[in-house]
């Protein structure tokens, strides 16, 4: 049930967590203590970024994403439409239908999904299913297992402190069923809001509401994906950035590298004109966001060796 607290919508993901017998144990933390935040009221975030960027304009989050990744136009259009619908329906928080971004490696699919979580202030987390043949990473481990842990969406909700984080499932087409379960089959129930809102978690031994999670899946191809999964997703073809987007991609990745280092972009070593031209040439030749990111990190590392940064 949604409650308004200080003018903002909140939900309680889990009503209560039954005792597991470790409540008085000084050496082993109880599950109810470890995951107690899930039983508190958590905000549904994203309202400010759903508002128009100007009178009659599109939602702020769509405008920001379009400025940073214009080649993602089809996905951004869906985000804009659903943001406007949420406001119209009186649901002022980020609430997207599950989306599958399909495109070549290095097209910026995962980066785009993470930016959705960052710009909306909902938070995000990425789980790669490449080579995964167990559903433990996604469904968690129930009580009685040595490494008991709630399902991945519940862990992300607790880590971000938001009831509607962006959960990114990377390379979903590379998962496969094994003796320990089928991660894709587990996804089916999580993507349906009617079942996800009352998802039974074996570790918590209780129902947890993951129905407000914003799911973004990525894949290089849909050929191996089952029809039941595709029927639950908005499939968006991602062509990747074109050569004319080189300057935008470089500026965005330069900012991201700085952020990951805990610095402002201006604090990075100065990018010489020759190095910038080489980076732009690399991207125009390869059209790979991933390769450009690695090249930027190399340039920064080499520059830092010759121009050490003073640390107070």
Automatic annotation (TrEMBL):
Cleaved signal peptide residues: none
Top-level lineage group: Bacteria
Alphabetical list of InterPro entries matching this protein: AAA+_ATPase (IPR003593), ATPase_AAA_core (IPR003959), Lon_Prtase (IPR027065), P-loop_NTPase (IPR027417)
Domain annotation AAA+ ATPase: ranges: 95-240
Entry-linked Gene3D superfamilies: P-loop containing nucleotide triphosphate hydrolases
Record-given protein name: AAA family ATPase
Record organism: Sphingomonas naphthae
């Amino acid at each position: 049930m949604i409650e308004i607290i200080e003018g903002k919508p909140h939900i309680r993901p889990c009503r209560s967590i039954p005792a597991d017998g470790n409540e008085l144990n000084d050496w082993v933390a109880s599950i109810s203590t470890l995951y107690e935040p899930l039983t508190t009221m958590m905000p549904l975030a994203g309202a400010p970024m759903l508002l128009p960027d100007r009178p009659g304009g599109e939602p702020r989050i769509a405008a920001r994403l379009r400025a940073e990744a214009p080649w993602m136009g089809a996905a951004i259009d869906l985000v804009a439409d659903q943001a406007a619908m949420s406001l119209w329906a009186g649901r002022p928080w980020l609430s997207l239908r599950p989306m599958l971004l399909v495109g070549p490696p290095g097209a910026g699919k995962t980066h785009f999904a993470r930016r959705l979580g960052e710009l909306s202030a909902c938070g995000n987390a990425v789980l790669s299913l490449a080579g995964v043949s167990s559903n433990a990473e996604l469904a968690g481990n129930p009580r009685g297992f040595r490494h008991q842990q709630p399902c991945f969406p519940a862990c992300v909700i607790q880590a971000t402190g938001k009831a509607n984080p962006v959960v990114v499932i990377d390379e979903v087409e590379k998962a496969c069923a094994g003796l320990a379960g089928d991660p894709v089959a587990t996804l089916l129930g999580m993507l349906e809001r009617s079942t996800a809102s009352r998802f039974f978690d074996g570790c918590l031994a209780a129902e947890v509401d993951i129905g407000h999670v914003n799911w973004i899946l990525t894949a290089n191809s849909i050929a191996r994906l089952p029809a039941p999964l595709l029927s639950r997703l908005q499939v968006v073809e991602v062509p990747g950035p074109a050569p004319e987007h080189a300057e935008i991609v470089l500026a965005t990745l330069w900012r991201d590298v700085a952020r990951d280092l805990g610095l402002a972009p201006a604090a990075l070593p100065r990018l010489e004109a020759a190095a910038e031209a080489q980076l732009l040439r690399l991207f125009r030749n390869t059209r790979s966001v991933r390769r450009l990111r690695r090249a930027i990190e190399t340039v920064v590392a080499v520059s830092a060796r010759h121009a050490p940064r003073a640390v107070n």
